Amino acid sequence: MTPAIEIEHLSYWYPDGRQALRDVSLRVEAGEKVALVGPNGAGKTTLMLHLNGILLAGHTHGRHPAAGAVRIYGQPVTESNLGRVRAQVGLVFQSPDDQLFSPTVFEDVAFGPIYQGLPEAEVRQRVDEALAAVQMSGFARRVSHHLSVGEKKRIAIATVLSMRPDILVMDEPSAGLDPRARRGLITLLRALPQTILASTHDLRLVQEFFPRMIVMDEGRVVADGPTEALLRDQRLLEMHGLERP
Fold first, then answer.
1. Which of 160, 163, 236, 245 is nearest to 198 (CA)?
2. What is the pLDDT of residues 183-205, one digit of tens each?
3. Orientation angle between helical segments 120-133 and 105-115, nearest 10 degrees
4. What is the separation of C-alpha 110 from the centre of its chain, rounded to a whole number of angstroms?
């Protein structure tokens, strides 16, 4: 079967000459739940920004071309394909305030379907479905910026779910959450059918929810395998600045 995400020999330099990714290759099958872990500066976020074309493989940035290829369900992530790719890959940022900018929750969640040109009735249906999926059905008329961090995270996920993506890419989904909100997030993630790739420092979340773990450091994939086995490898964890939960 065609993998949901396929990355081949991806290297990326920022305009200041710093190399953020070094010959990264990996694949994620449809329906997999995969955690991307590693210290700050490992290249995790840079990698994720390639998955819906915010950064593009093969483009020149500063003095260096970005080498390699990224494919979503077999489609190359290129400028000519961005509309199709972004409909399939929903990106949830670390800070929900980067995702929520409308006066009400309804308008935030409706933004994507409206941008897609869907009729009003379908927009409303998609908003209702997305809010129900994150257990926030009564919040449509609330002001997003008056919500708690945990509630904002759920609404940020709903803004992506309303686009009906096949893949959810999440940056630090549990950051800033108290224990109850964190537990609610895990319950929510378990109910979602999408392929999920999440960057996180929260190894307890990884242990509880993600069967597979990819470790990155200094722009490279240094380990990729079953979470349970990698979390038992004390030497691996110590070498890459990680602590067993």
1. 160
2. 999 999 999 999 999 999 999 99
3. 130
4. 20
